[in-house]
Amino acid sequence: MNTLPVQIAFYSLAALTLISAAYVVRARSIIHAGFWLLPCFVGVAGLFATLQAHFFFVAQLLIYAGAILVLILFALMLTRDAMSLHVPLKSHLGIWAGLISAGLGISASLVLARQSWSVTTAHPAGPARQAEALGEALIGLYAVPFEVASLLLLSALIGAVVLAKVERAPAPEPPPLADTLPEPEETRKEPVGVE
Amino acid sequence: MIIPNYRLGPIDLVTLLPYIAMLCIIGFILAIVPLLIWIERVVISLMQDRIGPNRVGPRGLLQTIADGIKLFFKEDIQPRAVDVRIYYLAPVLAMIPALTAGATLPFSTVRFRMEDGSVQTFPMVVGNVNIGILFILAMASLQVYGIILAGWSSNNKYSLLGGLRASAQVISYELAMSLAILSAVLMSGSLNLVHVVEAQMNGFWNWNLFAYPPLGFIITVIYLISMVAETNRAPFDLPEAESELIAGFHTEYSSMKFAMFFMGEYASMLVVSGVAVSLWFGGWTSPLPLLDFIPGFIWFLVKLFALFFVYVWLRASLPRLRYDALMNLGWKRMLPTALVILFLIACWNTLRTPQAQDANPVSEITMAPARAAEGER
Lengths: 195, 377
What we know:
The structure holds two protein chains of two kinds.
Chain A lengths: L3 H23 L3 H21 L3 H25 L15 H21 L15 H10 L3 H26 L16 H5 L6
Chain B lengths: L1 E3 L2 E2 L2 E2 H35 L15 H11 L10 H18 L6 E6 L5 E6 L7 H11 L1 H10 L3 H32 L4 H6 L16 H16 L11 H4 L9 H26 L15 H22 L5 H30 L15 H9 L1
Parallel strand pairs in B: 1-4
Antiparallel strand pairs in B: 2-3, 4-5
Helix pairs in contact in B: 1-2, 1-10, 1-11, 2-10, 3-4, 3-5, 3-10, 5-6, 6-8, 6-12, 8-10, 8-12, 10-11
């Protein structure tokens, strides 16, 4: 597996991920920061692909790049003045942030370097049965954590709906059919049935 | 038709098959778009009792080629206040995922006579991977970035509204689409599109469309609706509504960049139609066993063009949905229906096979790329 093409792919994907992550932090416009997350997620997905973890490659693309980032961008675009919003990069917390991240990075790399990793030549679950192995683990060994996590997500979902409803309540009579989603502004302003 | 497995040193035709399939897919998608546009214009004009394109070439066949050349030589206008990098990136991002998604779509089989005289069948597919259908789903979800980036970077309120509408619409209909695809996966017991198609062999009554009657039929209709919505085609073309958004997200695009959006839209239509053909209409297999002598890619093309005709038919006959009606249809009708059907299919599967030990059907077709990759290791 440690052939040259795989190494080249790994290093270029790692560089893509790190550089775009740096741009996420450095970008002055908040929406640019959001857009820079896309190459970052794609790079991580590519790392999964070089590890022959096809299922995780696709899951990363589908969930992070395909769904979560679209939602983030959607929210950013609805934000007032997101187009002209330029966050100043000066901050008086720079030194502390640098110290904390440096300490975290050094300790994490120390742990990673000291750990004796067991090397296997065979894949524990080859690409052929990866999805099945994950599915069986989720409803077998890890059933309880999985259910707890989904319960947490469900409560977060209901909480989000409740918060959105409370904020909407003082608005004067929403149009009768338009109460499913937070819509873009153009449908809220128009009376229903103008088309 | 049986092809001898020609061999040149370490390379034989079977190992080259994925690369041939790749050239076929990309070449087909890029070359067929002018013909598709011509078909669309002719069919719509027939339905509206007009003549349609008839000046350039025989029956107007060369009209789209002329349009393409015209687009190529148009001035490439860059508005003053656009976000330049993203503005140029967006058309590329609209097209690349659509072309990439074709990678796991099997469209035919080839029979090779091996060295030892035996005849083996191989699927024509670029990546015969186990998560084929998920890969296509992921690429379809990346497609929306072209529209979002274009809408935002154009610095035009109509474009931004188009981009917003597109992202909301694609997120909403992706759910129904994924649930429909999952139902097909449950019916066939595999995430590999080659296996899904193989499970529907030997006649049209084995198609997933007619499986678990009437569940298969309903879920097919749900997939077809969400497929039209995913590709932003009429009657779900709110992101580019001419009458309210003056073409929406691509208002500020001209020349070849506009052409790339157009190509991307047709390419993604082809890909999602190809997925529909593979999941519900038997893929490359023939509808009747006695028609097996006709090669698989011809059946695939026939089914693909039939679905494209449905696209055009919908566009000619249905008015555009209002935004709230679109959201109601997606979230309140299609999503609950698809969930119930998925649940029913799962129950049926569990009841019918109490001990589901071997969920994967054993494939008759050897997995060519997988085998080649094993050999390399």
